[in-house]
Amino acid sequence: MLEDQVHSYDHGGDPVELGRLSLQADVAWAMERAQLLSVGLKPTDRVLDVGCGPGHLSCRIAELVPEGSVTGVDTDPNLLASARRSAAKLGLDRVSFERSWADGMPLDTASADFAYARFLLQHVGQPVDVIREMGRVIRPGGTVMVVDTDDGGILVHPEPSGLKELLEASQAGQAAQGGDRLIGRKLAHHMTAAGLEDVQVQVVPFTSSLVGTEAWIQICLGFKTRVVEDDALSVDRVRSTLDAVRRALQQPGAFAQTLVYVATGTVPR
User: In sequence order, which residues have a C-beta less than 8 Å from that of residue 84 and are 6 or more positions away?
Assistant: First the structure.
């Protein structure tokens, strides 16, 4: 089970991380909405949102399935409590939440039409097991969609001092916690290994010019402060590097990007 694979990615209701997740959901929704609709999400679909966190996306997806339903799954009770409050405030009785590890969900086989996992697989040690479990819950012919990133796509120009070291330290720290900061390039392989068919991957640029400098830094680099080991880079060193990124991006003509990988596959009939 994932409980043995991932042990330190726990928000514990941290308001800073909750704010980062909310910002991420807000600025990325237009892209994600377009991608969900482009792969055939229908108004009647029963949707599974795996790794739903505080439910920001679960509630938004519910708007796209007015005749369907959304079930969010996560392990963090604090995030699930926040998700339930949000859904109740919006009057979304078609949205429900379950506490569960993603590779062993308490849901019936073939009980949903569309599964979605957003920035989840980078945190787990056995992503194929998670994708396979998503496929089990989805009916034959249904869709599994995974969105994630890859540190290999992070570029800042002019490149600030310390950025390379920060990326290397975050990759090592994530690996030590059972995750993979280079998951994006591997999604097609993992989805095929999980038994999905018609696997396709699209790569979408996510740039500082698109969302603004501070939002880009918070979304693309902010999480790294949670995974870098102290013996690799000190907290002060990480903060100094983030400040250097800010200064670099204040220069005329500066540019920063990461890449978002959108992978889809079909459950065999």
Answer: 55, 97
pLDDT digits (tens, 9 = 90+) for 165-203: 999 999 999 999 999 999 999 999 999 999 999 999 999
3-class SS at 197? strand
Q: Which helix (H) or strand (E) holds 70?
A: strand 69-74
| For the chain, domain boundaries | 2-266
Pairwise CA distance, residues 154 & 163, whole Å: 10
CB atoms within 10 A of CB 139: 16
Ramachandran area for residue 159 (φ above 0: left; ψ -120 to 50: alpha; else beta): beta
pLDDT, tens digit (0-9, with 9 covering 90-100), for 7-39? 334 444 566 565 556 666 677 788 889 999 999
Please, what is the end-to-end C-alpha distance for the chain in angstroms? 27
The closest alpha carbon to 99, from 117, 114, 80, 116, belongs to: 80
CA 23 to chain centre: 13
Hey, what CATH topology would domain 2-266 get? Rossmann fold (3.40.50)
Tens of pLDDT, residue by residue over 81-92, are: 999 999 999 999
The encoded tokens of residue 15 equal 């308001």
